[in-house]
Design a protein that fits this description.
Blueprint lengths: L4 H9 L17 E7 L3 H12 L6 E4 L15 E2 L9 H18 L10 E5 L2 H16 L5 E4 H7 L14 E5 L3 E2 L2 H14 L3 E3 L4 E7 L2 E7 L2 E10 L5 H6 L7 E13 L7 E3 L6 E4 L4 E8 L11 H14 L8 E12 L5 E4 L5 E5 L9 H14 L13 H4 L16
Parallel strand pairs: 1-2, 1-11, 2-8, 4-13, 11-18
Antiparallel strand pairs: 3-7, 4-6, 5-6, 9-10, 10-11, 12-15, 12-16, 13-14, 14-15, 17-18
This protein binds flavin-adenine dinucleotide.
Flavin-adenine dinucleotide (FAD) binds next to helix 2, strand 12 and strand 16.
Length: about 425
């Protein structure tokens, strides 16, 4: 079933009787060549590219709950490639190029909207740092424009330019960045993977790994044992818990993170705006709600919810940056669990167990990485070699001292 404008019209005039479920609901088979654990964005994208690009025919994806129940359906939907370091920037730019053709590729409207991201500058030192970051972005093929105060004012006159502590002196704009509908991304990858032959098995929790003589043989699940030639784990906030079942301790901490949405307002926010002095960022959804977020929770928990102290902190940041937000009513808040690596950068690598591969440590920036993460993990699983843009994302980099310590792209646990 392909989606198109014609199809929507035909269904509208024939009573919407022709729509089919987006994916099948198969029973698990006794064994597969490759089993992916975790039906979030990264697991689904991995399964999709494994089947579609790397020609893998016997692939299963196991999800303990329902697709999209994790962070992929809980994030604030920002996509961007405004990183600084060579270990990160080419990877995120690769992801941005995949986003640009994604909806045509998996034939689903994921509402990818390149409305730009503006990182605000409040000090001269910050302008120097952003100029450097912008140059690094341009060198990797991305787009970056340094704006002065008047140019920022022309874009967003509602900001508090003359705040005594945090005056706005300019901004770094990435015009190709933006937002995408997060659950649409999960559904698009799921539908594409299913069409390419992947068995997507929901309500199937992986409870252990069968490892013999240093090699993984399969996974124990709540629906029985499933044999596997290779196993790829992409469980985001549950990384430490799941990998501990294979006897591994990861350089990752899981932290709660909340998102907030106001009532629907008329179009106000031109793209995504980040406060360069406090931790606050905001965009506006197509329904009109202001979508915003800030710091991680003050206590650690695997519960997918947050507390009021962080809400207060985030809203204070919002009030300092754009006092008019105080007149909007908060409609919803929810929480997810972010898998934060010790340098804030991700891991896509083999593990010491033969046939067991790991993808995680996305901190709270993994949504934008979804297409490239899936592509690069599929590349690693299918070819046993890292993709060109993910070569630095090694599991043992903390032991070797080759960290990708990119402060400024999101919180790192060591900064809290
Ligand atoms: C509030 C919030 C805001 C965010 N905002 C942004 C943003 O604006 N931009 C951005 O780039 N990133 C953002 N992120 C980060 C981003 O959402 C995550 O980094 C990314 O979604 C993680 O990858 P995933 O989609 O695969 O994770 P998930 O969707 O969490 O997928 C992991 C899946 O594994 C499953 N699982 C766990 N254990 C098992 C098991 N034992 N067996 C089987 N399945 C299992 C889980 O049920 C889950 O579905 C945000 C995160 C949060 C919480």
């Amino acid at each position: 079933m392909r989606f198109s404008g014609f199809r929507v019209f035909k269904e509208a005039v024939t009573g919407h009787k022709g729509w089919k479920p987006l994916w099948r609901n198969p029973e698990p088979k006794p064994a597969y060549d490759i089993v992916i654990v975790g039906g979030g964005g990264h697991g689904l994208a991995t399964a999709y590219y494994l089947a579609k690009v790397f020609g893998q025919a016997r692939v299963a994806l196991l999800e303990r709950g329902w697709l999209g129940s994790g962070n992929v359906g809980r994030n604030t939907t920002i996509i961007r490639s405004n990183y600084l370091l060579p270990g990160n920037q080419p990877f995120y730019e690769f992801s941005m190029t995949l986003w640009e053709g994604l909806e045509q590729d998996f034939n689903l409207n994921a509402m990818v909207s390149q409305r730009g991201i503006l990182n605000l500058i409040h000090t001269d030192a910050q302008r120097d740092a952003y100029r450097r970051r912008g140059n690094a972005m341009i060198l990797s093929g991305a787009d970056a424009v340094l704006l002065n105060r008047d140019q920022v004012w022309a874009m967003a006159p509602f900001l508090n330019f003359d705040n005594a502590r945090f005056p706005i002196k300019g901004g770094l704009l990435q015009p190709r960045a933006g937002t995408a509908r997060h659950d649409g991304v999960a559904w698009g990858f799921a539908r594409g993977a299913d069409l390419a032959g992947v068995d997507i098995i929901q309500n199937c929790e992986v409870t252990g790994f069968r490892i013999e003589e240093g090699r993984v043989k399969g996974v124990e699940t709540s629906r029985g044992y499933i044999g596997a030639g290779k196993v790829g784990v992409a469980v985001a906030g549950s990384s430490s818990r799941v990998m501990s079942k294979a006897g591994m301790r990861l350089p990752i901490e899981s932290h709660g993170l909340q998102a907030f949405v106001t009532e629907g307002l008329k179009p106000t926010i031109p793209g995504v705006i980040t406060f360069g002095a406090g931790h606050f960022y905001v965009s506006q959804s197509d329904k009109g709600g202001l979508v915003f977020g800030g710091d991680i929770e003050t206590y650690k928990s695997y519960a997918q919810r947050g507390g009021l102290p962080v809400l207060e902190d985030v809203v204070e940041g919002g009030m300092a940056l754009m006092p008019m937000i105080g007149r909007a009513r908060l409609l919803r808040a929810w929480g997810g669990v972010a898998d934060m690596s010790m340098d804030g950068s991700p891991i896509i690598d083999r593990t010491p167990v033969d046939g067991l591969y790991f993808n995680g440590g996305w901190s709270y920036g993994g949504f934008k990485a979804t297409p490239a993460s899936g592509y690069c993990f599929a590349h690693l699983l299918a070819t046993d070699t890292p993709h060109e843009t993910a070569k630095a994302m090694r599991l043992d980099r903390f032991e070797r001292g080759y960290v990708i310590d990119e402060k400024g792209v999101g919180a790192s646990p060591n900064l809290h």
